[in-house]
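This section describes the prediction task in plain terms. A model, or a person checking by hand, is given the sequence of a single protein chain and must write out its three-dimensional structure as a string of tokens. No templates, partner chains or ligands are provided. The sample shown here is typical of the held-out split.
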Amino acid sequence: QVQLVESGGGLVQDGGSLRLSCAASGSIFSINVMGWYRQAPGKQRELVAAVTRGRSTFYADSVKGRFTMSRDNIKNTVTLQMNSLKPEDTAVYYCNAYGYSDHEYEYWGQGTQVTVSS
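The expected answer:
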């Protein structure tokens, strides 16, 4: 089992930047997809960005061009660089690991709050 710990959240003004980090307790090399999700109050959790084991990337339309996700299989970390932040980016951001080998598995971090003030 892999434990995920997020850091880097906080309060930032409209147009500002934040960098989220997610540290894994074990190797992420074989994990098929590492992702960042977010959940705003009263809304469903949504996928923001993801990087596959093969380095393919996905970004939600709402963050394309503003957010960049990276994956470091040596340091066992993933990061989410968030630029040009908007008040609608306010949410709890969660790190996620999803994989499948002989069985399917999924792990979540505890979440980190990002608040963008207008």
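For orientation: Residues 64 and 107 are 25 Å apart (CA to CA).
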